[in-house]
Amino acid sequence: MGVLLSEDELERRVEERTAALVAALQGSEARFRALIENSIDVTGILDADMRMQYVSPSVTRILGYSVAEVIGLTPPDFIHRDDAHVLGELFARPIDDPGPIETHEFRARHKDGTWRLMEAVGLNLLHDPAVRGMVVTARDVTARRGLEERLRQSERLEAIGQLAGGVAHDFNNVLLVIRGYSSVLRTTLHDPQQIADVDEIANAADRAAELTRQLLAFGRRQVLEPHMLSLADVVRGMQKLLRRTMPGDIAIDIEIAEGVASVVADPAQLEAVIVNLTFNARDALSSGGRVTLSVDEATVTGAEEGIAPPLVPGRYVTLAVTDDGPGISGDVLPHIFEPFFTTKQDGLGTGLGLSTVYGIVAQSGGGVEVATPEAGGVRFTIYLPAATGPIDDGAWADAADGSLAGGTETILLVEDEAPVRELVRRVLESAGYVVLSAELPSEAERLLDENPHVDLLLTDVVMPEMSGYDLAVRVSELRPNVRRLFISGYAPRVQLVEGPLLKKPFAPEELARAVRGALDDNGRVEIA
Q: So what's the pLDDT on residue 188?
């Protein structure tokens, strides 16, 4: 039998229960508010007329508006008009069709006038008398989408670069044969017209070789010869050249900060970068203007959005080339580093200048940033990793002009491309050398066993069976006194090479000079 409670006791218990429920409700509300108000997302509740009844305080951090400024607004008041259909789909569901609403993307205007890309999900609670609204949670995905687009662009450029580099590598061998045999043929001719015709063939091969170098540069597959150097000194050394190439109505300024660090780069390729960027700026100034080259340092955090390819955090030396021309349109900007893309009239450019810049800088461990300053025009900034160490003395700047005389030494030639192998053999034999010719490394090892005296191993780097570098290691183990000279026009495997290197395509006189230098052990042979 139950105990009857007095009226006072019953009232006390009801009050305690009510207080507990109120406390629980307040605690639940506090937790809800803490979650909503500290979320990285914006949460809002819209009524059936699409008017904002509630918005979380994060709207200030993400879009710049205060809560009071947003209450009572409708989405068209701050949503891009081209995305209005998104909101139409969102609110097309009737009150009696509750449940979650799939993810939508739309652009929302920030208070400063810029646009943010928002990703939103919703829940239809118009039927719920406690809410009577659409609950929408939106996240700012502007930075994420930008990063994804940069990644897609980098992947696209990488794919194009692999194709371009592969084609250029094979074409280099063809050009080497054309250039080489035209030079050999010229020595046998006496008729001036025939000599002129052969010279035109050689000139055409040289022009084609320059295109292959640009393609290899874009694909980051060219052979670089890096040195410790001062970017500031390189720019200073090019001032006269750059000023002479500028029309009279275009001024050029050089600005160099104090105490800029050194970089490790190929000086010839770095000069090509400077020339390409400067000429690109010059061509943008059809009615005159100003081009400014600025050398400085910068710290990269890794969060920058405009540098391609993305860089690891650290200290970088920068070169900015700025013009005050008309700028670059938004539809052109995503394609400026693609090879053969150009906005110039037909016949006024190959479209390889900026793609070459991109490839050289990226292969050197750096990146390129394109910006449109508020004052107008375009600013290209290259970033190269800062380095420490003694500056090279500049001997690389002067090509070796020693005697082209040959010799009588024995050379083991290893080259898998038959036309190239035959050309090199003929050039060296005509210079007096004894040439042992092999197509594959295994054949070279056999020739080495059969011939007790070999003075020089002349080998391509990229070959079947094993690389030229691995072959050189084996030869050194068997014959420590055999000198080595590598030939290649393809960078990925060349990074491992230790020893003199001759870059394809080369002329017969360059080959003869490189071989003589390697045999005389005059150090690394620098061939442009």
A: 82
Please, what is the end-to-end C-alpha distance for the chain in angstroms? 109
Mapped onto helix, strand or coil, the DSSP state of residue 514 is helix
**Amino acid letter, 499:** G
Residues 6+ apart with CB under 8 A from 396: 225, 227, 267, 526
In whole angstroms, what is the distance from residue 83 CA to residue 102 CA? 16
Fold of 146-218: Helix Hairpins (1.10.287)
Which residues neighbour 211 within 8 Å (Cβ) at sequence distance 6 or greater?
168, 350, 352
Looking at the chain, the domain(s) classified CATH 3.40.50.2300 span: 400-520
pLDDT exceeding 70 applies to what percent of the chain?
A: 74
Instruction: Count the neighbouring beta carbons within 10 Å of the beta carbon of residue 154.
Output: 15
> Average per-residue pLDDT in the chain?
77
C-beta separation of 176 from 152 below 8 A: no
Architecture of domain 400-520 in this structure: 3-Layer(aba) Sandwich (3.40)
Q: What is the DSSP string of 76-103?
A: GGTB-GGGHHHHHHHT-S-TTS-EEEEE
C-alpha span between 480 and 484 (Å, rounded): 10
Q: What is the pTM of this model?
A: 0.46
Residues of the chain with CATH 3.30.565.10: 227-395
- The alpha carbon torsion through 331, 333, 338, 342 (nearest 10 deg) reads 70
**3 state DSSP class of 211:** helix
CB 489 within 8 A of CB 473: no
Helix (H), strand (E), coil (C) string for 120-172:
EEEEEECCCCCCCEEEEEEEECHHHHHHHHHHHHHHHHHHHHHHHHHHHHHHH
- The more confidently predicted of residues 83 and 415 is 415
What 3-state class would DSSP assign to 471? helix
Rounded to 10 degrees, the C-alpha dihedral 454/459/464/466 comes to: 70
Tokens 């800062």 belong to residue: 386
**How many Å apart are CA 436 and CA 453, to the nearest integer?**
11
Q: Could you give the CA distance from residue 263 to residue 384 in angstroms, rounded to a whole number?
A: 7
- Residue range(s) of every CATH 3.30.450.20 domain in the chain: 38-140
For helices 418-430 and 508-520, angle between their N-to-C axes, nearest 10 degrees? 70
Rg (CA), the chain: 35
pLDDT-derived band at 493 (thresholds 50, 70, 90) equals very low
CA distance 86 to 72: 20
Do 317 and 263 form a contact (C-beta atoms < 8 A)? yes
